[in-house]
Amino acid sequence: MKSYEVNFDGLVGPTHNYGGLSYGNVASQSNSQQSSNPKEAALQGLAKMKALMDMGFQQGVLAPQERPDVAALRRLGFSGTDAQVIERAAKEAMPLLVASCSASSMWVANAATVSPSADTADGRVHFTAANLNCKYHRSIEHPTTSRVLGAMFANQQHFAHHAALPAVVQFGDEGAANHTRFCREYGEAGVEFFVFGRSAFDNRFPAPQKYPARQTLEASQAVARLHGLRDEGVVYAQQNPNVIDQGVFHNDVIAVGNGEVLFYHEDAFLETDKMLAELQGKLAKVGGNFQSVCVPRSAVTVDDAVRSYLFNSQLLSRPDGSMLLIVPQECQANERVWAYLQSLTSSGGLIREVKVFDLKQSMQNGGGPACLRLRVALNETELAAVNPGVIMTAPLYGSLTAWVEKHYRDRLSETDLADPQLLLECRTALDELTQILKLGAVYPFQIN
User: Is 218 a catalytic residue?
Assistant: First the structure.
């Protein structure tokens, strides 16, 4: 039976704005308060989805959240009609309104952690929605994330869904941005790789001094237990606290893996040699041949990696066994990064080709190609059980492009967020989107 890695890309929401909400994310903070272009952002993301589909890769789409999140503002004491809630929040607590309008759910690498059926004890694909409790604007996402994933992967014979972990600092969970999987074939047993920034209970692990470490060891261990993973099929590694303090807020900003290959920066991890040996040994036990590609700091500095998002790329397997790297345009603009990539692809190694995409709207808010996708390994039977409305096709691409053109603004500033009309525009758009994607009622305004 064939198996596939399906990339489900996040559709950028209508309130895409540069709120500068993510402390520790250099791009997010440096572009704070600039005007954004939600229409361009959504179209850039859709163009990437369409391009990968045209290249023969399995591609899906994951719907955005309802924003502004009026229910979240009500929980914080704002009352009245929806319009009055927004107007009062804008007058009394503008930062809370900005947070309630965040479109950061487009970075669906943070939506959940996913384990394929070949790895789990009950032979089902498991999903655990990330609590994202390090940042308020993201901590409000997981209830809707769970409903959307449930509508996409509804067949209980094949799919199992877990609620987000307790929303406390000890179990900070940022989803697949700190998780990858190594395997010989997507449908075979593999090794799941969890990267954490700190331990909540064990002070033997060093912690960053400037920026927060968002993923805890304890959260990663809890997800592995929930998914029924075997000890011999799991490796835990600590991210280098020094790179967190340089703006590497998730592992997918400094490393990316796929198949049997890990592509990483020399300074990405602590105890790198020990980690690589464990990955190699455990993958060998299930018939895999682990390989790594280390980018030396002498060629690409951590600062280069953060500014270009070199590692926030998509590493994709091609039929001939070679790999394709999908990178943002910022990699081409960085002289050292581009020189390294040219030498990498001309060396005859594992990564043979680089394709560049314009994702400026996402990049300026601190998210690149890898942030925009959630990877789900599925066999043919499981793929057939996925809601067909969310699998990208040429007609769906056309429908979504027309939908964006119809509903999205081409300029959005912080003052625009205070306009109650924006809420009505977003709800109208999302109600139509759930019909296009055949999701049913997943948003609070559709349920309440």
Answer: no
